[in-house]
Amino acid sequence: MGLKPVVDSLDQVAEDLRPHYTSVDGRFVLDLEGEPQGFVSRDTHVEQVNKVAEFRDNNTKLRADLEAATEAAHKLEAFKDLDPDEARSALSKVQELQKKGVTKASDVDDAVSAALTSFKTTELDPLRQLLIDEKTARQAADQKVSDASLRHAVLTQFRAAGVQDAAFDFVVSRAKETFNMDGDALVAKPGVYSTDNPGDSLTLGEWMTRQTRDIGFAFGASNGGGAHTNATHATTPLPPGTRELRNPTAQQLGEFGAEIRDGKMVIVNE
Q1: Would you state the torsion angle of the CA atoms of residues 121, 127, 130, 132, taken in this order, to the nearest 10 degrees?
Q2: 38 phi-psi bin (left φ>0, alpha ψ -120 to 50, beta other)
Q3: Is 209 among the domain residues?
Q4: Could you tell me which residues come within 8 angstroms of residue 24 by beta carbon, excluding any fewer than 6 positions away?
Q5: Please, which of 3, 214, 256, 260 could form a disulfide with 226 given CB 3.0 to 4.6 Å?
Q6: What number is the average pLDDT over the span 71-89?
Q7: What is the pLDDT of residue 230?
């Protein structure tokens, strides 16, 4: 029986040959002088295995490098018409934008938004407020003109009816509750209708006639006008030559305005 170069246990060899075996990594290796033909020593075997592993790893790395290079070449194909000078110029512009804080597309939107907000705060809002102030001032001026026109229209007729000077503001304030100005015309407010002509708007003349009854105290002789009396109360005797105007209409107040003002005629409300 031939000798085995490596055995798992010394029981596998004759007892007189056991001293020629050396324990290596849990097994027993025959001690030989030199290397018999076809025999590979452990060290040689390890060295060859390591070389094979190194060769395999190099091949794997070279294949990976080749695949990466191929992929890079495919990507570069898309830029084959790119001009190098233009590319460098574009990169330079990008770097300038980055210095100004623009690193992505949304930064441009943010910058525009900030500029618009600043413009609104510093320019647009003050201009809007200026327009509001101008409109408010214009409306106030228009209201003053309207009030003056209403006052003039009311007092023109009421002076003819003998209203006392001290009662002018009171009478005008009552008129404002019922009338307003529509351009140059004095008209009744919406929903205020005539009782003499149902369905028509109340006129200043009709309203004025009512006032001689409702606020007779505002009409009197303190300003030289004709005194107003009430038929249900005692009155002082009329001066010689003075006539009575009973329950006057608006037309009559206008017709006899001069006589009322001069004290030649007095209004009697019944």
Answers
A1: -90
A2: left
A3: yes
A4: 42
A5: 260
A6: 79
A7: 46
Number of domains, the chain: 1
DSSP letter for each residue of 133-169: HHHHHHHHHHHHHHHHHHHHHHHHHHHHTTB-GGGHH
| Position 32 in a domain | no
For residue 55, tell me if it sits in a domain.
no
**Cβ contacts of residue 137 below 8 Å, gap of 6+?**
none
pLDDT in tens, 231-243: 444 345 666 777 8
165 in Cβ contact with 128 (< 8 Å): no
CB 29 within 8 A of CB 21: yes
User: Does residue 131 register a pLDDT over 50?
Assistant: yes
| Amino acid sitting at position 143 | Q
Tens digit of each residue's pLDDT (9 = 90 or more) over 186-199: 889 999 999 888 88
Q: Residue 227 is which amino acid?
A: A
Measured CA to CA, the distance from residue 35 to residue 247 in angstroms comes to 157
pTM above 0.70, yes or no: no
Domain membership of residue 240 (yes or no) is yes
- Name the token pair of 161: 């009816």
Identify the domain containing residue 224 by its residue range: 154-269
